[in-house]
Amino acid sequence: MPRKKSVTSLAQQSVGIRLSSHEKLCAERMDNLLASIERLEKKVDTLSDSVSKGKGIVAVLVFLGSIAAALIGFFNYKWNFTTKVLLLI
After folding, report:
1. 54-64, pLDDT tens digit by residue?
2. Which of 77, 54, 74 is CA-nearest to residue 66?
3. Dist CA 76 CA 51 (whole Å)
4. What is the CA radius of gyration of the chain?
5. In 15, 22, 78, 84, which residue has its Cα 20 to 30 A from 33's Cα atom?
6. Rounded to an integer, what distance in angstroms lies between the CA atom of residue 18 and that of residue 24?
7. What is the C-alpha separation between 35 and 23, in angstroms, rounded?
């Protein structure tokens, strides 16, 4: 008895074509998503570097400001003390 050939209908061929085009479209979308994620990761890295540098600069400015405040306070105290001593004499 001869085997029956599997006959694919036109509908099955159409579904196969639609499925392969859908897979190509999904692959392209996935590539676009991965590229977008990589760009975002690079941006986040540069932003975190900028924030770290900013924190360092703020720490230096606070240190310099505290030294300036200490010097101003010292000279104000010294000037007030000498004017009081001169007024008492």
Report:
1. 989 999 999 99
2. 74
3. 37
4. 39
5. 15
6. 10
7. 18
What is the rounded distance in angstroms from the CA atom of residue 81 to the CA atom of residue 47?
Answer: 50
For residue 39, what is the enclosing H or E element? helix 10-88
Rounded-to-integer distance, Cα 59 and Cα 53, Å: 10
Reduced to 3 states, what is the DSSP secondary structure of residue 1?
A: coil
Average pLDDT over residues 30-56: 94
CA distances from 3 to 6, 7, 8, 63 (A): 9, 12, 15, 91
